[in-house]
Amino acid sequence: MGSVIAGHWLGWVIAGLLLLILPQIATAQPVDSLLAQAHAAFENGDYDKSRTLFEQVSRQDRPYAEAQYMLARLYLKADDMDRSKQAIRQALRLDSDDPRYLSIRLMHRHLDPSTFLPPLQRERRRLLARKILRLDSTNAMAHVELGSQHTDDFLVYDQAKAVRAAVGGCRSRFDVACLEEQGAVLLDQSAAAVEAYPQAERHLQQAVASDPTLKLAYKPLLQLYATREDFGAVLPLLDTMTVHLPDELDTWLYRGWAHYRTDAFAQADADFKQAFALMVPRTKHVFEDLRFILHEDEEDAYAQDTEAYARRFWAGKDPRLLSDYNERRLEHYARLVHADILYGAPRLDRRGWEMDRGRIFLRYGLPEQRYVIRSTTFHASDTALGSSAGRESSFMIWYYDGFWFVFENPLAIMNNDYRLYSPSPREYASLQTVIENNDSVIRAREVAREEPERSQYEPPEGRAALPYLASAFKGQDGKADLYVPYGVPANLEAEDTVETGLFLLNSAHTIVAEQRGTARVGSSTEVDVDSSAFWLHTAHLSATAGTYDVDIEFETADGAIAGYERQSFTLPSFTGEALRVSDVMPALLVEDGTSNGPGLITRHGYTITAVPGSVFERTQPLYLYFEMYNLAQEANGSTGYALEAVLVPAQEEVGGVRKVWRSLFGGGEKGGVAVGFEGTGTRPDEAHYLIMDVKDQPPGRYRLVLHVRDTVSGATVETSRDITLE
After folding, report:
1. Would you tell me which of 177, 321, 582, 648 could form a disulfide with 656, CB atoms 3.0–4.6 Å apart?
2. What is the rounded CA–CA span in Å between residue 404 and residue 418?
3. φ and ψ at 668, to 5 degrees?
4. DSSP label at 348?
């Protein structure tokens, strides 16, 4: 009987145990399956599905630290910082020493730092990063934090000077050269930057090596390299970023910036196009917004039709029409990226183009010189230096050609919050008459009114000299013929070919006529212009009368060397019946008969070797080619004309011209040089040339005036142009 009771009792115990164990076994299998599916979805980039599955796991009775960790990562990807923080707190309650979990907490503190006592928060992040590295020496986020802190140190102390003793006698407290001349004690603090740079680079390179998909690792490295202009290091870094983050907008923006800065303009153009394809409307608006560089008086017109205005604006700023891209617009895009890399304040949630330094940089580019002054020693009694008594500040001074700006970080903390400096009311009282030398807010407005923007673009091997001179003649079908002789530098390699172009742009900066060509260096006449040797080339096109921009260009086949010039030019109308005269084309030689050859101009039975520019050698005779239109005819069809050409120093102008005319054609004291001719013909339109001996004239600027008198009708007409004798 006892054995029966014992057997019943044992059965009930086993049954009870099974009731407790079997549900756990039943639930364990689905959770493992959910975890596996959630991880697979994450690896495949299906983050919504992954988040849903991990949330299902998190609702189980048993807590899963791994699920909370993954949710923290997923919420970060969705920009849900609060839920990400909540999830990682739960994970760390279950495992406080997992370096992966700690790195997410560090990422939270890095991306969303507390504003309470920033130095204290920085130290907390540093200690946490050190703790993580003791657990995992290759942890990418820990290296990013330490590398970023060293980068901040580098940026604060790079080219920094500490003022230990202020002096008077300088119109501005920020005139570093004057302060040093006056004996101010300026201590060089840049050694701290030299020490910080390799430590920052080491940590950040390790972060990229450990996790090349961690976007946070790239920007501080780019800050280091951009400040040092080390694009040899930038490009390989961006190759890594392109492999691992090909769908990130910043990848293509950084590539466009780097390729522009290394003169790979075609590649930069392609990179920025790819970036635009990835932009959200808000970012695209920033890159298309011209108000960053417009004159304040143009903003209303821009607002009325932004797209049409932008087309005209960029067309007018395009320095080289031979290329397939607009170098000035690429420069603007690259400046936006550069500003965001170096001048943004992420901890203030402000992009680089929203900061004062970024806005100045967008207008004027890199300063020629840059200093940082860290000081607490300026006093209100120093009227020339101003006052920041009782307040530690860091000042950054940017020098450009013709103007300069001062930016202040009021608390000298590492938040990159540099603002255009303006004296306080107390400082105004002490500065008095030198406000304009110290208030950069006022200066920025004044400079922007005078010069809204400045381009620093140059071809890879520099901008070559391109002497040229445009002349207009009567064409066919009511149009005018434009001839532009120009010079290609003779020091180019003999095997080089050059692409050439002449463009005529209307007031909307639209090309209305163009001539493109290819020429081999050394295939034309060599001429001397302004003591330099050039190969003579000539471009020609026809257009209706009007005022245009004439753009003349050449570039070598590889685009490394280019010359480009642009000027406003009025093509006159030669229609109607009144007496007209063309421009005077100065020439090295005019010969009867036609002769084809590179750079030579043939018109109306003459071959002209024109001067490519307005500078002429005094050692050789000056040929003057011109054409007369609508000469009156006698009954027998004959025409008659009197020609008077005079060259006088530019400062004498009209008075000098009349004096020479009196000397040559009616007596009086001679001044300058003149030549005259009377002739007859049988056609209403005649081509002619004069030869002027200028060897006895002193070097300098002259006014050349041609006066034509129709001896049949008595009508007169004249034209003039400026030239320089050397």
Report:
1. 648
2. 15
3. 110, 170
4. G
Q: What is the mean pLDDT of residues 217-234?
A: 97
CA-based R_g, the chain, Å: 38
Q: What are the residue ranges of helices labelled H in 158-184?
A: 176-181
User: What's the CA gap between 581 and 706, in Å, rounded?
Assistant: 9
Judge whether 467 and 490 are in contact, CB under 8 Å: no
Helix (H, G, I), strand (E, B) or coil at 601: strand
pTM for the model: 0.87
- Examine domains 458-573 and 576-726 and report if their fold is the same: yes
CA 386 vs. chain centroid, Å, equals 34
**458-573 is classed in which CATH architecture?**
Sandwich (2.60)
The rounded distance, in Å, linking the Cα atoms of 281 and 716 is 63
pLDDT in tens, 424-460: 776 665 554 455 567 899 999 999 999 999 999 999 9
Q: Please give the angle made by the CA atoms of 699, 552 and 621, to the nearest 5 degrees.
A: 30
The residue assigned the tokens 């004159």 is 295
Distance of alpha carbon 558 from alpha carbon 497, whole angstroms: 9
Q: Where are the domains of the chain?
A: 369-450, 458-573, 576-726
- Output the CA angle 196-198-200, nearest 5 degrees: 65
Query: CB count, 10 Å around CB of 692?
Result: 18
Q: Over 80: is that where the pLDDT of 583 sits?
A: yes
For tokens 């080219």, what's the residue? 159
pLDDT band at 55 (very low <50, low <70, confident <90, very high): very high
List strand residue ranges (DSSP E) for 25-168, in order.
Answer: 160-165
Domain 576-726 CATH class label? mainly beta
pLDDT tens, position by position, 470-503: 999 999 999 999 999 999 999 887 567 899 999 9
**479 has which bridge partners?**
none
Q: Residue 194 corresponds to which tokens in the numbers above?
A: 């030299």
Decide: 452 and 294 in contact? Cβ < 8 Å: yes
